[in-house]
Amino acid sequence: MRNKIVAGNWKMNGSLALNEALLKGVVSGTAGLEGVTCVVCSPFPYLFQLQGELSGTHVFSGAQNLSQYDKGAYTGEVSASMLRDFGLTYVIIGHSERRAIFGETSVTVAEKFKAAVDAGLVPILCVGESLAEREAGITEKVVGEQLDAVTGYVGAEALAHSVIAYEPVWAIGTGRTATPEQAQEVHAFLRNRIASLNAEVAAKISILYGGSVKASNAEELFAMPDIDGGLIGGASLVSGEFNEICRAAAR
Ligand code: PEP
Description:
Blueprint: E1 5-9, H1 16-30, E2 37-41, H2 47-54, E3 59-63, H3 80-85, E4 90-93, H4 96-101, H5 106-119, E5 122-127, H6 131-135, H7 139-154, E6 163-166, H8 180-195, H9 199-204, E7 206-210, H10 215-222, E8 229-232, H11 239-250
Parallel strand pairs: 1-2, 1-8, 2-3, 3-4, 4-5, 5-6, 6-7, 7-8
The structure holds phosphoenolpyruvate (PEP).
């Protein structure tokens, strides 16, 4: 039995007032759910609020990014050890928006992944193909290379303390979800690729699906054998939606 995880990625959204209502709604609305780990990943300035609202509850806190460097003259950056010092558990690494908008390369992503693992955080490593890449029939090549960049740098054993999120770029924030079969195909590919390096790690690692997951489609996605939960963007900003998605993973 693999750990089912539903992680909310708020992206650059929120305010003190909105967050308070949202967090309270998630804590109360997911209380008592068994068999699913609920995570909320907020922008850095609101992590203190997550800590206040979520510590002592069943909901975990996470960040959306970190620096590959540990400390020093890196203005504007936040290190893995700072996040750990702050009591965080999860951190999203290599989201497609960071790769596409902020120019993060596979090398940077691998360095960030290592920084997270070394600090005792659990990285949620995002991989996914663009629409053009899917249409060109190179989805497996693209996600395989994104995964290999990390396993080649840290070794497959380091994945034992991580989570993978398959997020087709064409499904993120577009309302266009991958079908359960399309997602399952890529999840199975990723798991087999990890199994070729370490079968035990492959069997245990949670692989989440992300890309326009909603309360209405979560259950059919999570019913697939290699889909172990979801990374949720837009729907994580509405507690009722997010709670329903957590419930679908717990079933
Ligand atoms: C995401 O940002 O990781 C994501 C999956 O977004 P959305 O659910 O809005 O498609």
